[in-house]
Amino acid sequence: MASTVETDLSRPPDTYVDVRTQELQINMGPQHPSTHGVLRVALWVDGEIVTRAEPDIGYLHRCAEKIGESVTHVQYVPYTDRYDYLAAMNNNLGYCLAVERLAELEIPEKAQYLRVIMSELNRIASHLMSVGTYGIDIGAFTAFFYAFREREEILRLLEWICGARLTYNYIRIGGVMRDAPQGWVEDVQRFLDWFEPRMDEFNQLLTHNHIFVERTSNIGVITVEQAHDYALSGPNLRGSGVRWDLRRDQPYLLYDRFEFDIPVGTGIKGTVGDCWDRYWVRILEIGESARIVRQALAQMPKEGEVMAKGVRHLAFKPKAGEAYTAVENPRGELGYYLISEGGQISYRSRIRAPSFCNLSILEALLPGTMLGDSVAIIGSIDIVLGEVDR
Amino acid sequence: MSAAREVLEILLKEGMAQGLSLFEGPQDPALVVPQGRLHEVCAHLKRSRLLAFEQCVLVTGTHMVEKTDPKGIVVRTEGFEVMYHLRSTQHHRILAVKVILPAEEPPTVQSVADLWRAADWHERETYDMVGIVFEGHPNLHRILLPDDWEGHPLRKDYLYPREYHGISLEVDPQWPAP
Fold first, then answer.
1. A5 pLDDT exceeds 60?
2. Shortest CA gap B119–chain A (Å)
3. Cα separation, B10 vs B4, whole angstroms
């Protein structure tokens, strides 16, 4: 782009036509609070307008795929917690399904129900975190505490069943770690009865707040073509109006037994695919997840095994082969592509992290927007850097 | 019927199947494309109305080492494999496309970053981790590791570095302290 533009100083000031200033490169991050972790975005700005953006990643890189080739399948499950640490249950689930597919294992029905309940509860917690911190990005601090109060209740339920609040390692290869303790199912019911009316409160506070809507509508618009081009998935894809959800379109576990809607962005407050639409899809998905949990609790058998036979030891070996298995994470399609040679350790374990693809669209979204809006756009993509860098 | 087989049949009808074959594994069959035809086939997979693969979900590079069976007969020679997972939301398909590369330095394959923008970062990561060079990529440099890193960690013959910018990476034999 042009740097300093020569202006004819002999003419009166109101006839200056070109008011472009010198282009400036600024660094957003890696310690910027609104980048949700250690992300650096190099921004080239012309006054207040962003002309070019380049995300720079890798600050949190731990070479997870190399670890996947060094430890056994069973040992690797706790590592999967650390990628998308806000939705660790879903990460466990994706990896376990991939290994079980290679091993052709049958999972007991009760374990499958517990897996569904866990991953949906974790989805609610993750989306609450996402919408809460998005409020902070925009400057609305209060809503964050409301979201955290609800999330805390979910973390308490998850802690009760598996002992951890963030990195659960509860879903294991062959089933789940243990059965739900006495009274847990009733407590989840009580939580849902308490929680669902609370979302109306949250919507009044933030979703339909005039200032919030003004800050988020009509900016960061992603078209359907763009969304597919950058392989977006999850709420970012659905925010653009594409009704695509792996839980319905490629059912795994028992998702074909439940009734739920797939919310998509419709441009209520502005344009289809703007920041508000992506936010709104997450809010609606919280309600749908709560619906799934209710149905799963009602259908779950009271008694039954929660672990397949002959798996609970470190020498577990799947059969030789290669398979790509994907699940719907709160942030999109989480896929594991495993190559096994029949040993205890996988030959190649490739992770398809949804945030990695979702983040790459920034280079197309930011140019042309105001500098202040860039924070709103990055927040609406909802990335977790642990998963981007792996 | 698996996606790869369906797609191969459509490609046969559309006259695009020269040199293509099917990799039959116990789980997912994959479409094997010769090195020189990758871009052409991918462009067709994206544009054909019957196929319409809009998304490039994942690009994986794997270093395959030589494998022998118990009798000592070579069943797989050394080389590289690049796997592309493509998705069509219209036709509800996910397709695995595989390119098998010989063990030459550097292993080179055509870039598909101009067809799907998502392939840009995936190819950079594959270059970073496995050292596969994507011809025609607009900006092929390391993405996760620092630019001055030596070697490609996911090669099977990768040696761990002993130090990086004066920081020792050796494990202290006295650790943990008694």
1. no
2. 8
3. 10
- Which of 11-70 (B) contact A at CB < 8 A? 25-28, 54-58, 60, 62, 67
For testing the chain B interface, which of A59, A101, A224, A228 should be mutated: the one with the most B CBs within 10 Å? A228
Mean pLDDT over residues A364-370, rounded?
Answer: 88
> How large is the ipTM?
0.85
pLDDT for A90: 92
Q: Each residue of A92-140: pLDDT tens digit?
A: 999 999 988 888 888 888 899 999 999 999 999 999 999 998 988 888 8
Q: Is the pLDDT of residue A15 over 60?
A: no
- Chain A within 8 Å of B178 (Cβ-Cβ)? no
Q: Spell out which residues of chain A touch residue B144, defining contact as CB-CB under 8 Å.
A: 57-58, 61, 389-390
CB contact under 8 A, A337 and B144: no
A231 with B145: Cβ contact below 8 A: no
**Residue A386 near residue A37, CB atoms below 8 Å:** yes
Mean pLDDT of A155-160: 91
Q: Determine the distance in angstroms separating the CA of A24 from the nearest CA of chain B, rounded to an integer.
A: 22
Q: Does B121 sit within 8 Å of A360, measured CB to CB?
A: yes
Which pTM was predicted?
Answer: 0.86
